[in-house]
Write a structure and sequence with these properties.
Number of strands: 4
Order of helices and strands: HEEHHEEH
Largest sheet: 4 strands, mixed
Distance between the termini: 34 Å
CATH topology: GMP Synthetase, Chain A, domain 3
CATH class: Alpha Beta
Structural class: alpha+beta
CATH architecture: 2-Layer Sandwich
Radius of gyration: 14 Å
Amino acid sequence: MKQLIEYIVSNIVNHPESVVITEEQTEDKEATKYLIKVDPEDVGRVIGKEGKVIKSIRQIVRIAAIQKGTRAIVDLLEDDSKKESQQEEVETETPIELEEEKKEALEEVAEAVEEEKEELSKD
């Protein structure tokens, strides 16, 4: 799971060498929490417009966790003391729903990345 997150995030940011994914168990040990830390310059790219990119990353991780029979929480560390406030825990769903959500999430990430590339090429 950690490698999946690292792969997605490092391909979105301008400074992939500064991407750090920390993995820890929640207090009740029912879920694994993944903390994403990126260069301050790249925080906006990971969040995306209206939070679309981070939501899509969370959705992809959620689907992968469900397929493995686990629970996962993804947080973005904006700096050392402040975390991205929205958390999304994994819930159980049917395989058909998972495939549909997975496809939609991947499409959203691809769209968000393309929008970011277009904006950068304009500058």
